[in-house]
Amino acid sequence: MTDVLRRGRASLAFGFFAQGVAFALLVTRIPAIQDQYGISDGLLPAFLAAVPVLAGVGSVCTEQLVKRVPPSHVLRWSQPVVLLALLGVGAGDRLWEIGLALAAFGLAVGGLDASMNMLGVSLQHAYGRSIMLGFHAVYSLGGILGASLAWVGAHWDLPLFVSYLPVVLVLLPVALVGSRWYVDGDGTGASDGPGKVGQGQGQGQGQVQPQREAGAVGFKLLLPLCLVMTFAYIGDSTVSNWSAKYLQDVLGSSEQLATVPYNVYMVTTLIGRAVGDFGVRRFGAVAVVRLGAVVAAVGFAVVAGAPGAWVGMLGFTLLGLGLCVLVPQTFAAAGRLFPGAADAAIARLNIFNYVGFLIGSPLVGALGDAWTYRGAMLVPMVLVLVTLVYAKSFAPGPDRYGDGHERPRTADVGRGSNGL
Predict the structure, then answer these.
(1) Which of 109, 114, 232, 380 would disulfide-bridge 350, Cβ 3.0–4.6 Å?
(2) How many domains does the chain fold into?
(3) Are residues 33 and 152 in the same domain?
């Protein structure tokens, strides 16, 4: 039983990693995509906005789809579509081709993101301790690798198809093979083989608890988490879209130095997520979320008031350490709030990932043009601080001691020595 969970955890971690690589390869080569297809500056925002919009549609569809098929099946087939759509982006040269490829990419990403986090929450429930940050840490690692591969392709002036093909040829078969060991919350996997956990096992043996019972998702209860998710992605998109411009135009750095903040942000995001699960286990999710929000707000304040480029980079470093814990813990909290309808809650919550992404970059750009870019950085700072108001939504609820730590469920008693 322990081996089943370990294999499920490892295979899901690879799914997060592959998605990190694919998404980074897409977003970091946008200038090359624009040149290859002759997309004008005026038309480019429409193409870019279509991806998160369609991803939101894909997430909504996934909520309905998992009522009929397990999330493992959605993930098993959406990930190859994402990778093949990425290859399609690099293969064409006409506008309808890039439109079709990005549409497929966006719809599949919505299903992939939702189903990955559904399985992650299910496994965390089975383990009886925090492991969600670890999955997102692997996603960050994939993003770093994807960005590095994109740099190599740009440096050697490789065609997009040539850059993407080796990556897809490696990731696609491994993802398909690994998908055999996905584990669903009802105890079943993507196949009837190694990924299936017996329902009749006794308590304390590592079984995955059922989470697909009938249940309703109350939007009033979910709303605080939706807002936290939105604010976190507003902060994240601010860094990804404006860090280079801010360092160069506002803080007077060189063009080369302006490329550093986002890489630093990605590395510190990886570090924060790699150690974040230990913090949740030791201090509880509420304390970790509060600390992350405060650190992120301090990071934005440092960026806004930085006298020079190096202090600005310190601010972006703090942003990575602070923002990185919010999204994984928000998904985990949704699973705890709605144990009888965890999949529906996660699918709906996932939509606000894309809402934040759509709002963040235009918001900062409009404020920067109308006011100052230093002042614009204070807006995501305030939004992140609002997370403190909703931090209690991350508490485990009835399974909680007076000190805020999670109470082990009956099925988790005795697991401390089973190697998990």
Answers:
(1) 114
(2) 2
(3) yes
Specify the DSSP element, H or E, that contains 109.
helix 95-127
Q: pTM for the whole thing?
A: 0.86
* Same domain, residue pair 321 and 387: yes
How buried is residue 394: exposed, middle or buried, by Cβ count under 10 Å (0-12/13-18/19+)? Answer: buried
- Is 411 part of a structural domain of the chain? no
45 and 109 housed in the same domain: yes
Residues 22 and 153 in one domain: yes
**pLDDT tens-digit profile, the chain (420 residues):** 589 999 999 999 999 999 999 998 998 888 889 899 999 988 988 888 899 999 999 999 999 999 999 999 999 999 999 999 999 999 999 999 999 999 999 999 999 999 999 999 999 999 989 999 999 999 999 989 988 898 888 889 999 999 999 999 999 999 999 999 999 975 455 544 444 443 333 333 344 444 444 457 888 889 999 999 999 999 999 998 889 889 888 999 887 788 788 888 999 999 999 999 999 999 999 999 999 999 999 999 999 999 999 999 999 999 999 999 999 999 999 999 998 889 999 999 999 999 999 999 899 989 998 999 999 999 999 999 999 999 999 998 644 333 344 444 333 333 333 332
Residues 237 and 323 in one domain: yes
Q: Return all residues near 366 (Cβ < 8 A) that are at least 6 apart.
A: none
Q: Residue 43 sits in which domain range?
A: 1-185
Map tokens 């982006």 to a residue: 89
CATH of the domain at 30: 1.20.1250.20
Q: For residue 353, what are the contacts with CB-CB under 8 A and spacing of at least 6?
A: 55, 113, 229, 233, 327
Provide the H-helix boundaries in 214-259. Answer: 219-245
